Each structure stands twice: as C-alpha cells, then as structure tokens.
Amino acid sequence: MFMTFFGEYRGSEHPHESPPVMLVPLVILAVLSLAGGYLFQGPGVPQAGAPRGGRNRKPGPDVHLRGRRPRGIALAWLMYVAKPRLADSFAYAFKLPYQLIYNKYFVDEVYDAAVVKPVVAGSRWVLWKGVDSGLIDGSVNGIGARARDLGSVLRLLQSGSIRSYAAWVLFGSVLLMVAMGIAGGLR
Known about the structure:
Elements: H1 2-6, H2 20-39, H3 61-65, H4 68-82, H5 85-93, H6 95-102, H7 107-154, H8 162-182
C-alpha cells in the first residue's frame, strides 16, 4: 500500500483512468454487490453494526491479531516511506530467506520442472509425432499413395480403343458366368 500510494512514481508513462469498457462493468458489479449486501440479508447473515455473539462467546482468532496489525503497518511505513533504503539493507542482510520468500519457495519452478515440461515433452513426442504425424498423417498419406499406385496400374488398361474395351467386357462376362456355374448358380 505504501509503495503504491505513497511512494514515488517509477513508471515511464503517465497514469490515466481505465477506458469505459473496463470501468463500467466494475462499477456495475460494485453497485450490485452493495445493493445485494443491504437488500438480501437473511437469517445467518450478520447485520451491519450488529454485535457478533453473546457474553459467553470465545474470542475469534482475529482478536489476537489486532495488536499485531498496527505494528505491521508501522513497520511497513518505516521501511517504505520513512527510510526506503532500510528495506534494501534488510533484504541484503537476510539474503537467503529473502530470496526464498521472494521467489515463493520456488514452487513455480519445481512445478514447471516436474509437471509442465514432462507434459509438454510427452505431448510433443506421443501426441504430435506419434499420433498426429505417425498415425493420422501416415494413414491418410498411405491411403493416398495406395490409390495413386492402383491408379497407375489401372491407367494401363485404358487404351482408347473401343475393340479392347469390348474385349474386356466379353472377358468379364465369361468370367462371371464361369464363377456362377462353379458356385451352382446356373441350372
């Protein structure tokens, strides 16, 4: 909060309000949230300003944090507003824990190495090279190659001569009658 609202500006562009295409939906959601909170308070929903429990109610976990919040805010103000160089010296003094926390305990890097990279590599080799290129493209290209081979053989049968076509029709008819005679189709 202190670095955003009280620190010095570190950008190169001049900040400006969001365009209406971004601002209008946010305003609508804010108005609906406020209206819904006031209009639809049913049983079990705490009323604004109402006491939270009876006399014998045990204090919640937030009661113990009340004393720590002002100290945390004061420490943030000291490190980022009053003495901004203090944060850098603190980070340098505790370099290893600072780097560990700053990098979020390297969870993203471990997840990337353990999950993302193996999934991407597996997808590349199994799905892309194996299934897509090998199986699907291989099947389509194989069918095309066999059709081309069959067409190149059948092309030899086309001579353009009507006599050869009539001979082939006669040969096919005789072959069909012989096959039907063998199968017992002629009586």
